[in-house]
Amino acid sequence: MEKALIEAILNKKKSAFSIFYNEIVDHFYSFLKSSYNLSNEEINDIIADTFVKIWIKLDSFDHNKWDFITWTWTILRNTTKDYFKSKKDLTFSEFSINTEKNSTFEDLLEDETDILEELEKDYQIENIKKALSQLKTDEKEIIFLRFSEWKPLEEVAQIMWISYSNVRVKLHRTIKKLQKYLSQ
Q1: How far is CA 169 from the centre of its chain?
Q2: Which of 67, 78, 87, 150 is the 20 to 30 A CA-CA neighbour of 27?
Q3: Exposure b/e, 97-123, CB count within 10 A at least 16 = b
Q4: 83: nearest Cα among 28, 18, 143, 19
């Protein structure tokens, strides 16, 4: 993200904050959707709360302590944790796959080879979903940040508030776990 945009955000320029929002909201949404079993409404609530907190806390942002993007991701993670604390009956679960509800039967008919390919993909996706569902929350977050958001390990460490070496070890162990789960 451009330094000029970050400076404008920190100076509470609403137009800059709007640009920032549009650039990052889809990443936040994808993170929440893939990591937690939340409805779209719940995700939107968490994201809205996150951006309100970011706006309110702009004055307390410390350039020497944080990278701006890492700081915003940390606020998202903390807001999500707060949400779950307030809703103790909710549980973490597998990644979900959305399907169109307005499809007709004819829309669903496909060539037999397409169906076999889709079944194979579905089987692989289901296996991956099962494996991911067995991971702890912090393990899911590391996998998402590293392989979905392509964050460098240093940034993952900052976002998760753990050391770089701890991230490396957790990532390695989590990958081993996934490999074990997928080979069963």
Answers
A1: 20
A2: 87
A3: eeeeeeeeeeeeeeeeeeeeeeeeeee
A4: 28
Angle (CA) 53 146 137, round 5°: 65
Q: Are residues 141 and 78 in the same domain?
A: no
pLDDT in tens, 75-132: 999 999 889 888 764 444 433 333 444 444 444 444 445 555 655 666 677 777 788 8
Residues 6+ apart with CB under 8 A from 66: 74, 158
Q: Does 75 reside within a domain?
A: yes
* Residue 76 maps to a domain: yes
- Are 132 and 143 in contact by the 8 Å Cβ rule? The answer is yes
Host domain of residue 155: 110-183
pTM of the entire predicted model: 0.57
